[in-house]
């Protein structure tokens, strides 16, 4: 989906609106979001599972705090999703 910054006034709000549309169109599905920037904060906070990636460029602190899981790079995020045991280990009580 294209993020329409002009329609919503900011990329942060546009991403949130896309998430809301996805949830509405897929009420029985869990929506996972991955990001690291200021513009991803609301997206990760409102996704069913928000994964913040702290890559070489770093990550926005409020986005880190708004996420459910924090990883060091995108490959780790994808590995969590591909390996159910890793995700269970990370999210267990």
Describe this entry's structure for a reader.
- Helices cover 52% and strands 13% of the residues.
- The chain has six helices and three strands.
- It is of the alpha/beta class and 93 residues long.
- It has a three-stranded parallel sheet.
- β2, α4 and β3 form a beta-alpha-beta unit.
- The protein is globular.
- The mean pLDDT is 93.
- It has one domain: HAD superfamily/HAD-like (Rossmann fold), CATH 3.40.50.
Count, helices: 6
N/C terminus separation: 35 Å
CATH homologous superfamily descriptor: HAD superfamily/HAD-like
Secondary structure: number of strands: 3
Q: Pick out the low-confidence regions.
A: none
Report strand %: 5-15%
**Broad CATH class:** Alpha Beta
Shape descriptor: globular
Give the quaternary arrangement of the chains. single chain
What's the quick description here?
The chain is 52% helix and 13% strand.
Helices and strands, with pairings:
Layout: H1 5-8, H2 11-25, E1 32-35, H3 41-46, E2 49-53, H4 61-66, E3 69-71, H5 74-82, H6 84-91
Helix pairs in contact: 5-6
